[in-house]
Amino acid sequence: MPESLQQFFEARRQSVRKAREFATRALDGWGPTSRTEDIRLCVSELATNAVLHGTARGHGFLVRLDIDDNCVRLEVHDSRRQQPVVREPTTTDISGRGLTLVAALSDEWGVRDRTPLGKIIWSCFKTADDAAQSISPSGSDRDDHPVEVR
Known about the structure:
It is a single chain. The protein is of the alpha+beta class. It is built from three helices and five strands; from the N terminus they run βααββαββ. It has a five-stranded antiparallel β-sheet with strand order 1-2-3-5-4, covered by helices on one side. Helix 1 packs antiparallel against helix 2 and helix 2 packs antiparallel against helix 3. The chain is globular, with a radius of gyration of 15 Å. The chain starts with a strand and ends in a 24-residue tail after the last strand.
């Protein structure tokens, strides 16, 4: 049975570290997985994108993690509909690799619109081999209704 945790963050640079710490606590609570570092890095990249590009003034972002027998799903909800673009940075560019990393580290990823505003960038990390044995589900079902991101 799936289990979910989510936390809202202010659109500040310090929130990227807090989002990564939230993900670490969630993943540690669910038990060991060989994908923890991949997930943490993707949380950092997507939270950074939310802070720099995805949040309208006065709004924040939400990080949601879901786990079931087969995968961990990461979602970052923000308040702008502007679709992200995977860039091909040159060797001298100091930014622009975030979505390339997400695509390389996750098994699947994508973007969908949120109602009433914004978007959700999601990625999935297959964990059937190592996480399924150590998870003790809480009995909560996944809520597919997006929360309001202020």
